[in-house]
Amino acid sequence: MNADTLDVERIRADFPILRREGHGRPLVYLDNAATSQKPEVVIDALVEYYTTYNANIHRGIHALAEEATARYEETRQKVADFIGAPGPECIVFTRNTTESINLVANAWGRKNLGPGDEIVLSVMEHHSNLVPWQFIARATGARLRHVDIDGEGRLLWDDVERLIGERTKLVAITQMSNVLGTINPVRQIADLAHQRGALVLVDAAQSVPHLPVDVQDLDCDFLAFSAHKMLGPTGVGVLYARRELLEAMDPFLGGGEMIRRVRLEEATWNDVPWKFEAGTPNIAGVCAFSAALGYLQELGMEQVRAHDLYLAREALRRLSQISGVTVYGPKDPEARGGVVAFNVEDIHPHDVGTVLDGHGVAIRAGHHCCQPLMGRLDVVATARASFYVYNTVEELDALVEGIEAAKRLFRAPVHTRT
Ligand code: PMP
Predict the structure, then answer these.
(1) Ligand 1 centre from 127 Cα, in Å?
(2) Is domain 8-30+300-410 in CATH 3.20.20.60, yes or no?
(3) In this structure, which CATH number among 3.40.50.20, 3.40.50.2000, 1.20.200.10, 3.40.640.10 belongs to the domain 43-297?
(4) Nearest CA to ligand 1 atom 8
(5) Residue 3: its pLDDT value, please?
(6) Residues with catalytic roles
(7) How far is the CA of 370 from the centre of ligand 1 (A)?
(8) Each residue of 270-315: pLDDT tens digit?
(9) pTM, to two decimals
(10) Top mutation candidate among 124, 177, 178, 222 for ligand 1, by most atoms within 8 Å of CB
């Protein structure tokens, strides 16, 4: 696929923030792996909630509460449809991917893991799919194993085969790396894990926003993602889990909403998924997430993927032509998402980021919450450009121009006057 598949000019008109400037130049937003921008329909949906049906959910018997509850629960159904879940009872709303993974680590891990059990992760995981398992390993005596990567940042299949064994209780793996862009073969990993009696958790923070994802096709047991990376508001995350797993798990947080009956000394739990939603949730955010899902559905996730692929291919081509630039991750654009991490010889990525910012180009520079991966790549940090539905090839040209400017600035010979 070479041609673009989305009407990007029309899409750009839906995003008010793209009309602003960065340091006097048109804003080029290439930090979508951190968070995406929001279309007008999502912003309007937030305002609509607060101006027309603001009320707490599941509790009131008045009209506003009923409307808010209906809209909140309709979004749950929409999320289930978006990822091919069998029903809304498999969808738990959280604050973000991080909380979804912590929920599984605590509510499933503490009950099901013990000394000698193993959790298989990979060296490319985000801290949010590493640290919760470190907590749980320490608490239960379970052991962590990590699948390594090859020189192009792809999982070593030999390691996958070797590390997933009799003792493995859970494989927790990212579907798309937020640094390397690598798309991992989650279905094959799930098949192997299930053959060996383990469950599979998918960190889908980067994949659900960018790829068509169907949890039944993936055959995963848990899947976590965040609304804010897919045009939705911050403060809304999703945990998908198979219903029987949710039913067998103990609650994570205690409080209102998640109970059926409370006595002074003990309590019983609500049905799933509400058993996992203690306290007042982000009602406005969840209702507005519905608009984001609708927007993406209208574009079509196949088209979103094709557009990312188009930009990834063009970015790889352009960056490979700049001398001194190292790009990390698979060389084949088909094997990756629209995330391109790179370094410029002898220039710290923070300096690259600062020069680009001066050109109105927003990228990310740092460890990207993947410190172990930085160590594995033998770098302290990288620069990273990441794309979404409103990005254009002209913006890639602005990226290249900024990198060339950084090279000129930092490689300029230093003359001393006598
Ligand atoms: N996993 C991956 C692969 C991510 O890219 C991110 C966000 N950078 C997260 C997890 C965490 O997402 P959140 O901050 O929304 O919890």
Answers:
(1) 8
(2) no
(3) 3.40.640.10
(4) 34
(5) 58
(6) 369
(7) 10
(8) 999 999 999 999 999 999 999 999 999 999 999 999 999 999 999 9
(9) 0.97
(10) 178
